[in-house]
Write a structure and sequence with these properties.
seven-stranded mixed β-sheet; 298 residues; binds S-adenosylmethionine; Rossmann fold; alpha/beta; 13 strands; 30% helix
Amino acid sequence: MSRAEPVLARDELARRAAEIRWYHAMDLGQGVRTEGLTDPLVSLPRLHLAADLRGRRVLDIGAWDGFYSFECERRGADEVVAVDHFAWSGESWSSKAGFELAHAALGSRVRDFEVDVMRLSPDAVGGRYDLVLFLGVLYHLREPLAALERVAAVTAPGGLLVLETHVDALWTRRPTARFYAGQELKFDPTNWWGPNPEAVCALLRAAGFTEPVVVSPDSAAYRLSRAGRRAAAHAARWARGRPREPGAWAQGRCVVHARRPAGQLTVIRSLLTEESTSAPSSVTTTRSSIRTPKRPGR
Ligand SMILES: C[S@@+](CC[C@H](N)C(=O)[O-])C[C@H]1O[C@@H](n2cnc3c(N)ncnc32)[C@H](O)[C@@H]1O
């Protein structure tokens, strides 16, 4: 998927980039770099994405400024589609302006759809995808299992899901999740869940994925140093009479790869009507597909 020529002159690009509040620090070309809240170049190696994505269709769910979408395009993907809702809808401090400017600056051919995760379907995003990125989104969702079933619905048979998430409850290897009813996690009321890696894998299986593998286990040394840094930060806050985030020592991030079964959909599809093939989660032979959700959708 080659790019077209960028259309903006350098000064104009720099001026417009400076007016935007960016989530992704990224290179827009011509020596212009955005002042993002996060630097995806730090996280990128942990995702273990293939260096060459030729022949793949990629879907980036929760793309925000689009760093990962543009990176997949740069790696030669045949087609890349970026999807977001919350950050693009202007419900918070963010907007779609960063994605749009980066798109123009890079001469990108990435297509985009404004779709809520809970409404993902092949119809809504132009089909099913060989590689699906679901990075930093899971813990923002009130209904993670139902959301993963939607993600499964847009992952092609045999396709790969790369999921990155905040994790909690690292003190146990039983599938466990912490629920943040308020602003316990980083003072952000849009953070709802802190599953541990075992729970992430269990949720993925229940949603119709196979072979979930944690590809980025934090090393013991890294976890120890992070716990030390957090303990120092908590002690400092405590000293100022503003303690927060009890239990943060048991938190981290993890990346999981999982696949959609290659044959399952094909076999079952022959028994289905056109309408039901657009919601494959309802036909997977998982426990989840016969369970009633605990919570109503938002
Ligand atoms: C922490 S950011 C991660 C952005 C990017 N994927 C990354 O890893 O750098 C979470 C993203 O999920 C999106 N998001 C949250 N809830 C969503 C929903 N219900 N539907 C679609 N996108 C959602 C937000 O708009 C935001 O872009």
